[in-house]
Design brief:
Elements (H helix, E strand, L loop, with lengths): L7 E3 L1 H14 L4 H19 L5 E6 L3 H15 L3 E6 L5 H12 L4 E3 L13 E5 L13 H11 L4 E5 L21 E5 L2 E2 L13 E5 L4 H4 L6 E3 L2 H7 L14 E5 L6 H13 L4 E6 L4 H7 L4 E4 L5 H6 L2 E4 L7 H12 L3 E4 L1 H9 L9 E4 L3 H8 L3 H6 L1 H12 L2 E4 L5 E3 L6 E3 L12 H17 L9 H19 L12 H8 L2 H7 L2
């Protein structure tokens, strides 16, 4: 039986408990695991810079520090020049590993004495201070060591063992700072805090070392699953030659309030580029001409206060892009909330629900696509509370509103209100950090939903998978659009990239 080790993500507690059980099942001692972890780190170092090179290994008190002590011995045997800065080891394995380093003549600098001068001439810094399971703010001497590594180690290559010191391995939040690693060699399994939130600023390249016990460990159900390209290629097959526009759904986008026609245009274009058969825009009368002029394929309707006729012909509804928070917008929100179909709630539609919640009718499907500030409004908390634990916030939104939800940001998360696990998107680009990107995403979601709903029931996929596909398409389109520069990439630049990505069979045929 084979495992895709990088597709499953676990919490700190799951790894801590599971590694012991898996090691026992594989008849591997914890000391052997430590040896294998150190060997994995040495392999990463050798791939970066062969010996001889100058290494500074910074060790903490527990088994993460123990990995560092063992690595010091292995690296010296491999021809590297090694310096160790450490606190007093406390775990049994760390004590034994530290003694083995001293027994072979290795010198140790007290971590409290670490200073700028110790980084002179160093090629590689290894952070083995605090690994999996940190859930409180750093204190001295670790916070001082982290700041020194980030300040004076910037000209070195920095490797973190398991998790960058200071990064919460369950939330991806720095406590309050963390080592800015160029590479993180993480053990046994990927952790939630390595793939979402601020993690992208600290982890660098992530290397997974399963330490030879994966077959036993991966019997544990994962907390997150990684969204991968095969989800798109499996479900966006070549279209039948006899197909027509009615086969691919009718997306109704409700938005485009006064002065915000652009948001509706972006959502509409994205829906068209992702394959919706028809796309209508219900907008304020002052925006109708601008939207109609921007994209002739859009069917643009000025609405005062009645969506009845448009809702009757819609396959799915996207409400929010450029909607605003006026009385006109609220009337439309209330109408859509009663519609017996699948609704994507975004932007000001979410803000409207946050201000004055509406009950979701039974058996209706709602999908939310908030960014952290919108999520905070829905949960009536501060944005910092959402970013402090993105997965927890997402789960609470799903429960509170009985809705599927996609929480935007680095490491976009997707969850169903009916499943325990969630999805995470590990793709994306800072190029998406610009107004209008979310409008594009809502259009992508609407198009995929319309096409999914238009399929025979037996061929439809779960709605959380539709959201996962949309997150991946949007993220990768952002990456591709930014190839000539992240700054200045516009949401409208994603349209051609989306068109290519939703035709994976043609990409393969052309060799792209």
């Amino acid at each position: 039986m084979s495992f895709d080790l990088t597709s499953m993500i676990y919490t700190a507690e799951q790894v801590r408990t599971g590694e012991q059980q898996a090691a026992a099942a594989c008849d591997v001692s914890m000391a052997q695991l430590m040896q294998r972890a150190a060997q994995a780190c040495l392999g990463a170092i050798q791939a970066k810079q062969p010996a001889p090179a100058n290494l500074l290994i910074v060790c903490g008190p527990g088994n993460n520090g123990g990995d560092g002590w063992v690595l010091a011995r292995l690296a010296q045997h491999a021809g590297y020049k090694v310096q160790v800065a450490a606190v007093q080891p406390s775990s049994e394995l760390a004590v034994l590993a530290a003694q083995a380093w001293r027994d072979q003549g290795g010198l140790v600098l007290e971590l409290e004495s670490l200073s700028a001068e110790h980084f002179q001439g160093i090629d590689i810094v290894i952070d083995a201070m605090l690994g999996n399971g940190l859930n409180r703010n750093l204190t001295a001497p670790f916070v001082d060591a982290v700041e020194l590594i980030n300040r004076y180690g910037r000209h070195c290559w920095i490797l973190s063992v398991d998790v960058p010191t200071g990064l919460d391995s369950d939330t991806g939040v720095a406590k309050p700072t963390a080592v800015q690693a160029d590479c993180t060699v993480t053990m046994i399994a990927l952790k939630v805090g390595l793939v979402t939130g601020e993690a992208a600023d600290y982890c660098g390249d992530i290397v997974l070392a399963d330490l030879g016990i994966s077959k036993a460990f991966f019997r544990t159900p994962a907390t997150l699953r990684v969204i991968q390209s095969n989800l798109v290629s499996e479900h966006l097959q070549r279209r039948r030659k006899s197909s027509h526009k009615g086969d691919y759904g009718h997306v109704l986008i409700v938005g485009g309030g006064v002065g915000m026609s652009g948001a509706a245009v972006l959502a509409g274009r994205a829906a068209l580029r992702c394959g919706a058969g028809k796309v209508s825009i219900a907008c304020h009368r002052d925006s109708q001409l601008a939207i109609a002029s921007a994209q002739p394929e859009l069917m643009v309707h000025a609405v005062a206060n009645d969506l009845t006729e448009l809702l009757e012909v819609a396959t799915t509804v996207v409400i929010g892009p450029g909607l605003g928070q006026t009385p006109w917008a609220r009337v439309l929100v209330e109408q859509v909330a009663k519609w017996p179909g699948t609704v994507v709630w975004d932007a000001d539609a979410l803000n409207s629900l946050a201000k004055a919640p509406l009950s979701k009718p039974d058996k209706h499907d709602w999908l939310f696509t908030p960014h952290p500030a919108e999520a905070a409004r829905l949960l009536r908390c501060a944005t910092q509370d959402v970013t402090a634990n993105r997965l927890q916030a997402l789960t609470q939104i799903c429960q509170n509103f009985h809705a599927y939800a996609l929480l935007k940001g680095a490491g976009t998360l997707v969850k169903s209100p009916y499943q325990q696990d969630a999805w995470v998107c590990r793709r994306g680009s800072p190029a998406l950090a610009v107004g209008g990107s979310g409008d594009v995403l809502s259009g992508v979601v609407g198009a995929l939903l319309a096409q999914n709903v238009s399929q025979p029931v037996a061929q439809q996929i779960p709605l959380e998978q539709v959201l996962a596909m949309a997150a991946w398409l949007h993220a990768v389109a952002g990456e591709n659009a930014a190839q000539h520069g992240e700054r200045g990439t516009l949401p409208s630049d994603l349209m051609a990239e989306l068109r290519a990505l939703v035709n994976p069979h043609q990409l393969l045929t052309t060799g792209a």
